[in-house]
């Protein structure tokens, strides 16, 4: 099982190595070349790592000159520079290229994942305390029993052996999970080969089983409980198979994706700062990338990418010697 890093230096170096693998230094030949895309992406990851906003990460860089030296910044970017950079670097196509880079660094030559799990979770749009939410419930009308609110929704496919995210999908809920199975699995198959997929009853459908088993040779273990409860046998072949020969021992691996959700919310917060749909999607993509980078803190990864700066790494790590090392 994996442990996320607590060291900002190691996270920044892993983010730089990931960006160098996935993105060019500059987005255009006529770019002003004040900051590279690698530096700006590392600042965005540091923002999520510190659970702060754009102004907060800029102030953190002002107070910690060793991080500025590590990023090789000639000057500290303005907070609006980071906000505008997030629109470019966290667009859907570039975010997928960065996810490809993290998976290549994690997997190396090993391209097959023996066990994966899929799930989704909702995050909050604000920072209201749980106490405020409880008090608010008491003043609502007694006849109003159900209230629906739109919330950011993150769907992921993760490796159950190391909690590493293999694919993600950002959207908005509430909405059913059943139609997210095929896009997420197809996205994960672009990076790795899957042998086993476990999911909860929200993804239960015969077309999902057929897509995974017949189309890609992936064994699926999903409880056949979607729809109204009934004692009749399911119509589909694979759903009937789940009713008669459900493997509970293998299905226990699915709890690891719940652990990934818990790791994300504990380390990066349970809310996003964006208010509009596209800004919330960018925040969700950055959350998934930051989670992988915090797991990806390995000396070999950024030693190869930052080899000429190894002396600077040693000096900077000495200044942060009190922080945990993964």
TrEMBL record:
InterPro entries per record: Transposase_11 (IPR002559)
Entry's Gene Ontology BP terms: DNA transposition
Occurrences of domain Transposase IS4-like (ranges): 117-293
GO-annotated molecular function: DNA binding; transposase activity
Signal peptide region: none
Pfam family, one: DDE_Tnp_1
Name of the protein described by the UniProt record: Transposase DDE domain protein
Organism: Bythopirellula goksoeyrii
């Amino acid at each position: 099982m994996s442990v996320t890093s607590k060291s900002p230096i190691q996270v920044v170096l892993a983010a730089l190595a990931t960006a160098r693998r996935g993105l060019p230094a500059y987005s255009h030949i006529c770019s002003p070349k004040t900051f590279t895309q690698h530096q700006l992406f590392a600042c965005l990851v540091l923002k999520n790592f510190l659970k702060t906003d754009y102004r907060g990460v800029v102030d953190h860089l002002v107070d910690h000159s060793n991080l500025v030296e590590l990023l090789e910044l000639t000057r500290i970017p303005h907070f609006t520079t980071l906000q505008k950079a997030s629109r470019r670097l966290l667009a859907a196509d570039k975010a997928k290229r960065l996810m490809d880079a993290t998976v290549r660094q994690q997997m190396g030559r090993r391209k097959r994942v023996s066990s994966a799990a899929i799930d989704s979770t909702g995050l909050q749009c604000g920072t209201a305390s749980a106490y405020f939410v409880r008090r608010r419930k008491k003043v609502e009308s007694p006849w109003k029993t159900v209230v629906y609110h739109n919330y950011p929704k993150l769907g992921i496919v993760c490796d159950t052996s190391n909690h590493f995210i293999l694919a993600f999908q950002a959207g908005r809920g509430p909405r059913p999970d059943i139609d997210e199975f095929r896009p997420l699995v197809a996205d994960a198959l672009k990076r790795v080969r899957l042998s086993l997929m476990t999911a909860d009853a929200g993804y239960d459908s015969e077309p999902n089983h057929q897509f995974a088993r017949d189309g890609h040779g992936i064994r699926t273990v999903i409880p056949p409980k979607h729809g109204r409860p009934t004692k009749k046998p399911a119509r589909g072949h694979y759903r009937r198979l789940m009713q008669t020969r459900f493997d509970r021992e293998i299905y226990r691996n699915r709890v690891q994706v719940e652990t990934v959700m818990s790791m994300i919310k504990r380390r990066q917060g349970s809310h996003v700062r964006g208010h509009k749909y596209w800004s919330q999607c960018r925040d969700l993509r950055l959350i998934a990338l930051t989670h992988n980078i915090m797991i990806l803190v390995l000396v070999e990864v950024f030693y190869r990418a930052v080899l000429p700066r190894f002396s600077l790494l040693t000096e900077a790590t000495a200044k942060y010697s009190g922080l945990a090392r993964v």
